[in-house]
Each structure stands twice: as structure tokens, then as C-alpha cells.
Amino acid sequence: xxxxxxxQRKQNYPTENQYNRIRSVMDNIIGTEDxxxxxMELLSVLTESGKIPxxxxxxxxxxxxKTPNITYDQNPVVAVTEVFEWGFRGLNYHxxxxxxxxxxxxxxxxxxxYQDEIADVRELPIKKVRLNS
Length: 133
Hints:
- By secondary structure, the protein is an alpha+beta fold.
- It is built from four helices and seven strands.
């Protein structure tokens, strides 16, 4: 059975429009957008949260790793579980795996996603898997 489009699923969103910053981005999705374009629109409705995350919070950001020859998600959505001097570790929702992120490789800032917005952010087509060569 084919998946429903984002607009078809809109009626089942778990948060109210007036409290959800992500809703305007979701309402503009038609399904053919480039992940970078959707990511830029998403970041435009969020507020920069700095470079250091807090454990237990959710973030989206642009990531460019330094390690050569690894496959990575350039636009991760992460639930941060641990913060270290060099960076942080968390669950990448696009991959369903725990990953490590170094602070120096975060391009720009982290953008916090509130708990009631996380389901909506996970539906956005921002996943961009790349090979660092």
C-alpha cells in the first residue's frame, strides 16, 4: 500500500498549528523538493541554539565531517544523549542509529526542535546521505 503524502497526513499531526514552528514548512511541501531547499526553509523558521547542545534535547543542523571515506547524513535530526568536550552523541532519526558529531564539523549553529515538533520534523524530506571523499 503506498504511503500517504504529507498533506494527506496533515490531519494527524500531533501538535497545534499556533505552537508548531514546523507546520508552515510542512504545509509548503509538494514532494519534489531538494533536501537542501527544505532544510533551508526549516532553518528559517527556527532559532539558532549555539554550538553546544544539551543532553535530552532534539536538534537539527548541517554537518560536514572531517573523517574521509565515511557515509554521513548532512542534515541530521538528532536526539542528543551525551555531550563531551569534543562534541556530542545522539540518535540520528534518519538512520535510527546513534552517531557521534564533533562540534567543529557542525556548519553554523544547532537548531533546537521542541518535543512536540519532533514528529513533524521527522516527516520532512531533509535527509541527505553523502560520502565524504
